[in-house]
Write a structure and sequence with these properties.
Strands 1-7-9-8-3-4-5-2-6 form a nine-stranded mixed β-sheet. It has helices spanning 19-24, 70-84, 114-118, 135-145, 182-191, 238-246, 274-277, and strands spanning 2-6, 9-15, 38-45, 51-60, 63-69, 90-93, 99-103, 111-113, 123-127, 196-203, 213-216, 219-228, 231-237, 251-253, 256-261. Strand 4 (51-60) and strand 5 (63-69) form a beta hairpin. The chain is of the alpha+beta class. The longest helix has 15 residues, at 70-84. The radius of gyration is 19 Å and the shape is globular. 42% of the residues are buried. The protein has seven helices and 15 strands. The chain folds into two domains: 2-188, 2-Layer Sandwich (Gyrase A, domain 2); 195-277, Elongation Factor Tu (Ef-tu), domain 3 (Beta Barrel).
């Protein structure tokens, strides 16, 4: 078993008689489909449909735990408090800092992360420190599975849920009622207008630093995110990437030649032409 302590993660508790309805009307995750042993991704969007805060969410007794990045904790708490109004809900910060992620044959405690489950990996999330393996192991697994992380792979308030595959990983519902930003993401879904997607990057040599522009034929198609050696994640325009691949135009990250692959679990493919991209 591999167990990695992520010390930069923080926890918020949402409890009370109205906890589920309160969150169900705000966030992207469908809580009616959230099992007691599940951990699913979620987001609180801007009215324009972009990710304002992102997190993992799971049930805890009659309430919920939201696991987010330390830099988002205070802002997320303030935003939820603003929306609370007269709802019978209590919001609080957990004093425990950090979360342990574990995977492998002996992993047995924690909530199963639906993002990795899509890629065939049983990864469990558990509050507190219960392992000491190198964080680079988790980063490599995250890249291999195509799991994007805010701050590392995309900036908050700059990405739609579709950009980071939330329409495939269990974090974005199109069946439940309205929530903040729902109209925009539903329109993207029904019109098929999502063009930016997370891809897995493989370089012929070691990849440059995060933030380096990805180009094809001298035109930008995306930006590099997380990097471990020759491999990384990026959010790219898959229509432009598909056209370049069909024309055998080299894809460059800085001066490093690279190949791009959409995560197999997404079922997505690169469109080979502009016509196919709008089909």
């Amino acid at each position: 078993m591999t167990a990695v302590f992520l010390e930069g993660r923080r926890l918020l508790h949402v409890i009370g008689a109205d906890a589920e309805s309160f969150l169900q009307n705000l966030i992207t995750t469908d809580l009616s489909a959230l099992g007691t042993d599940d951990a699913k991704p979620g987001a609180l969007l801007t009215p324009q449909g972009k990710i304002l805060f992102d997190f993992m969410i799971w049930r805890d007794g009659s309430g919920f735990v939201l696991e987010t990045d330390a830099e988002q904790q205070e802002g997320l708490l303030k935003r939820l408090t603003m929306y609370r109004l007269r709802a019978a809900v209590e919001l609080s910060v957990d004093e425990v800092e950090g979360v342990t992620v574990s995977w492998g044959d002996d992993a047995s405690e924690g909530r199963e992360d639906s993002r990795f489950a899509k890629a065939g990996i049983r990864l469990l999330r558990r509050v507190g420190q219960h392992g000491a393996d190198a964080e680079a192991l988790y980063e490599a697994l995250r890249i291999e599975c195509g799991v994007a992380l805010s701050g590392a792979d995309f900036a908050l308030s700059d990405a739609f849920p579709h950009d980071v595959l939330m329409d495939f990983n269990g974090g974005l519902s199109f069946r439940k009622g309205c929530y903040v930003g729902q109209e925009v993401v539903s329109r993207m879904q029904h019109r098929g207008t999502a063009r930016r997607r997370v891809v897995i990057v493989s370089g012929e040599n070691a990849l440059p630093v995060a933030g380096t522009e990805i180009s094809a034929g001298g035109k930008p198609i995306g930006t590099l995110g997380s990097v471990v050696g020759n491999h990384g994640l990026a959010i790219v325009r898959i229509d432009r990437a598909g056209e370049a691949m069909a024309a055998e135009t080299p894809i460059l990250i800085g001066d490093v030649k690279a190949s791009l692959a959409l995560p197999a679990w997404s079922g997505l493919a690169f469109p080979a032409s502009a016509d196919e991209a709008t089909a």
